[in-house]
Amino acid sequence: MQFPLIGKVAQPKRWVIGTVAAGILVVSTATYFIIDRGRAKTDITALTVPAQSQDLTLRITTSGSVVPVQSANLSPKTAGRLAALYVDQGDRVQQGQIIARMDDAELQAQLAQSRARLAQVEARLAEARAGTRPEEVAQARARLAQVEARLAEARAGTRPEEVAQARAQVEAARAQVDLASKRLERYRYLANQGAESRDRFDEASTEYRRVTASFNEAQRKLQQLQKGTRSEEINRISAEVAEARQALAQSQNGTRPEALSQAEAEVAVARGELQAVEVQQQDTVIRAPFSGTVTQKYATEGAFVTPTTSASATTSATSTSIVAIAKGLEVLAEVPEADISQIKPGQRAEIVADAYPDQVFQGRVRLVAPEAVVEQNVTSFQVRVVIETGKNILRSGMNVDTTFLGNKLNDALVVPTVAIATQKGQTGVFIPDRNREPQFRPVTIGATIETQTQVLQGLKPGEQVFIEFPKNRKPDESS
Prior knowledge:
This protein is α+β, with helices and mostly antiparallel strands. Helix content is 44%, strand content 30%. Among the domains are: 73-101 and 283-323, CATH 2.40.50.100; 109-130 and 257-282. The strands form 4 sheets. A 6-stranded antiparallel β-barrel has the order 2-9-13-11-10-14. A 4-stranded antiparallel sheet has the order 6-5-3-8. It has a 3-stranded antiparallel sheet with strand order 15-16-17.
């Protein structure tokens, strides 16, 4: 039987296993202490900085551009041809200086016509105010006497001697017709025989027609005298008498008030028409609305230009304008809605242009726009900054960064902005715990100024905050 042998052998194996297990336990414990001591010796000095109290000045930096303080595109009030242009790009101009002239040939003709019209109606008004002259009254009285005599004659009828005279004129005219007829026949015969020229025959024909017409007229007058004056003729002459009497009364009484008022109204209308043409003619002269510099030249002499309105698009405004004039320079900055409460008129500002990155120009807030501008769903306010230094260097259209210097914060507790973190929707910082491991602490932050952020609550001066984490340790694992 070999069982006892087996049992003896089994005993030493269990001891060896136990010894190995004990060795593993000792090694694990030693390893733990070594690792723990290694962690305890980790140097976090280079990974953390203390929260410090400092005096800070709020600084809000935003982009912008240099623009003219005042600018205008000059164009005519009516479309036409540019006759003359007296300035070029870069010229300095004074307010009221003539910049250009439009073609005004048609307006000159209208001006002459309007002046003549005014002179005419003014003469009529002067005549109406002066009243009727004595010779005009005498003429009206003579006219009345003449038509009254004709009316009396028409009403009295035809006298016998007039009828006899008319009958005698008819007989004389008949004799002339008979004589002319015989002469015409004789010249026709001689002309046909070739014994007389054709011209003599034509003269005889003309004479015959003349005396025949005279005979017919004499007969008509005789018949009219025999019948007497017709009633319609008497009525016509009576109307002439009434008209002559009215004219005489008007000349004796002078110009009627309504006629004088009408003449005055015609003068007023003529003066208004002349003034309108004069204004149009004056508008053909393009003058500088203010003193400044000609920044752009859009047209040349002979070009056709049209009026430009403030609502015109940029392309259409420049394509129909003559020149552009600008006055002064300022910075137009776009400030986000969140920062606009920190901007006030008179506030100091620092200006850095892309063209001069190493120079800082000084400025001061002139105006904060009362209405926001929304572009691509971003709300901002325009702020205009007066340029106090660098006016001779900066140019219109340059891109700049403008930093607005706000209120001064005394003893503000600040940490580097890189130390601010967000965990589970909360804003805070990571501070070292007892084992010098990063631990999240919620804080309330204030303004961010350059690389520093103000801490309002949750942190004390001198407390260390992590600005960089130990290797292989993420903030979510350490918190």
